[in-house]
Amino acid sequence: MKIGVLTSSRADYGIYLPLLNKLKKDTSFQLEVIAFGTHLSKGHGYTLNEIVKDDYPVIHKISSLISNDDEESISSSYGLTIIKFSNFWAKNQFDLVFCLGDRFEMSAAVQSGIPFGVKFAHIHGGETTLGAIDNIYRHQITLAAILHFTSTDTFKDKVEQLTGLETDVFSVGALSLDDIYDFKPIEKDTFYKTFNIPTEDFALVTFHPETVSPNDNYKYALEMKKALEKIANKLTIVITMPNADTLGSIYRDELIQLKKNNPNKIILIENFGKKNYFSAMKYSKILIGNTSSGIIEAASFGKYVINVGDRQKGRVQSENVLNCVFDQETIYNLTCKALEKRNFEGLNLYYKDGASNIIINKLKDLK
Length: 367
What we know:
The chain is an alpha/beta fold. The chain has helices at 10-25, 48-53, 71-91, 104-113, 134-144, 153-163, 188-194, 217-231, 248-261, 274-283, 292-296, 328-339, 355-366, and strands spanning 2-7, 30-35, 59-61, 96-100, 120-123, 147-150, 169-171, 202-206, 236-240, 266-269, 286-289, 305-308, 321-324.
């Protein structure tokens, strides 16, 4: 069975890894990775190198992003991705192609495949993120797919409503959490030295723009910076930089300025990679920002999360998530309260045992 896997960013590649590792070893499958989006962007760490190091039999490389991130450039990148993939789908055929999540590049690659009758399997469909236009992209991908693997039963119900299907929709849990309890982090001293992090408590921070209300991002990015300046008086701040979203450069510029103002307390990381990022989560004191990893993965590491703004609004949340608006005082005060808590010991609503095995067994049922 010839399987293609579409990966457009560091985020989805890290989520795919448990499945990719099993597909690569299983002789029932002929695996080909299709890398595009920010993987080929030097400004975002050129994460294609991480894929190459993992030694897949075939890696397709498709460059289609425009460097700017204003609305016109994002729209142009979407169109260019469709054009590039129209050529790719014309020349390459698969029994099934995996797509994941809600990125605009992922949506474009999938939409391009519709006229060619490409059979897509969608991971992480049915979710809702009211503060991001990714919500629209995600549902577009869902409607183009014939097979669905959702992270919770709630999202399974949503996919069934969207597609009108009650078969070929499976609730498997969050794929990134597969084998999470066997995860071995980078040795602590090695981790701190590798990323030049002072041997003290740190907050792990990731902020992305709210693409539903782009003009508000100028205010939000400033409130973010002011809040982090205050929090830096209490502990070190380790920041993973924004992905390629509409107006993401606004946040990036404020974070670079934050680093200049606080060189000893702010660490900027372009790309951790999954193992390093999970190690950072384990060793961190708290998570702050508006990224899906705070909602989906942090509970499994016993971490409380300050979830800021509406980007993740609508996603199912475990009890470790503390929500607040983009206001410097509110972010700071809630962070101080959370730092007084012990590690979170509740359930992660996104965890189910053996997600990748469930997916592979469903694939074999198709043969």
